[in-house]
Amino acid sequence: MVVIVVAVLVIAQGDSDESTTPAPSETTAGSTTQEAEQEPQGNSERADLVSFRLDDRSAAGLTDIWIAWTIKNSSSEKSDYSWDWEAVDADGTRLENGTQLETDVQPGQTARGEYPTTLKSATGIELNITSFNRTAGY
C-alpha cells in the first residue's frame, strides 16, 4: 500500500479575497462543461483566475469529471497562486471542496491546469471560490 502525502505551506501576503464567489468560466471547444458565471472583479489579483470550470469527460457509462483552470499573471513579477473552492448542488449542499495551486507563473504568462474530482455528475453543480491568494514567486 502506497500512501502519498502532499503538504503545502502557503504564506499569504497582501490582500486576499475571503468572500465566496462563483468561479469564472471559459468555454472550451470539443468538451462538455458545466460553467459558473463570472462576477465583475475589477483590477484585483482575483481577476488573474480567468477560468475555473467543471469539465465532464464521462463516456461509456464511466463518470470522469475534472476541474480545469486558466491563470493569467497580470502582475510585474513571478507569482504563485493558491485558491480554495467548493462544488455545491442546487440545494446548497457542498459535494466537494479542495485547494488548487499554480506556481512560478511569469509576468504576462498564461498557465492552465486540471485536476480530477469525485463528483458523480456535473449537472446543476456550481463552483465557488472561497479564498484566493497571489504571492510573489521565488
Automatic annotation (TrEMBL):
Residues 19-44 have a biased composition (Polar residues). It comes from Streptomyces resistomycificus. This is Lipoprotein. Keywords: Lipoprotein. Residues 15-48 are annotated as: Disordered.
